Amino acid sequence: MVAAGAATGLGLIGLGLGHITGGVVMGGSMLAGAGLRLVVPGRSTGALAIRRRKTDVLTLATFGFLLMAGSLAFLIEFHAT
């Protein structure tokens, strides 16, 4: 799911729908992956489980949050002084 979300976000950017939209989609898929890793049992996670559960959740949630925040930061308009 995380890989599909990243591919979708990059596809949206490639189609010209904007880097903000693509970044939010990619960050959202990482946050969703973190949530799934937190609640899905260990033997059912497949490729989502790379390290220990706590490390996976923390890494995916941090990168997902930062990617979404960075993408949304482009919406901020600064005054030209």
Molecular structure report:
Helix 1 (2-14) packs antiparallel against helix 2 and helix 2 runs antiparallel to helix 3 (53-72). The radius of gyration is 15 Å and the shape is elongated. It is mainly α and 81 residues long. The model has no long low-confidence stretch (mean pLDDT 87). The chain has helices spanning 2-14, 19-39, 53-72. The longest helix has 21 residues, at 19-39.
Write a concise synopsis of the structure shown:
By secondary structure, the chain is mainly alpha-helical. It has helices at 2-14, 19-39, 53-72.
Average predicted local confidence, pLDDT: 87
By secondary-structure content and strand pairing, the structural class works out as mainly alpha
Order of helices and strands: HHH
The number of helical segments is 3
Q: Which geometry do the CA atoms define?
A: elongated
Helix content: 55-70%
- Residue stretches low in confidence (pLDDT < 50, at least 5 long) are none
- What is the number of strand segments? 0
**Sheet with the most strands, sense and barrel status:** none
For this structure, the quaternary state is single chain
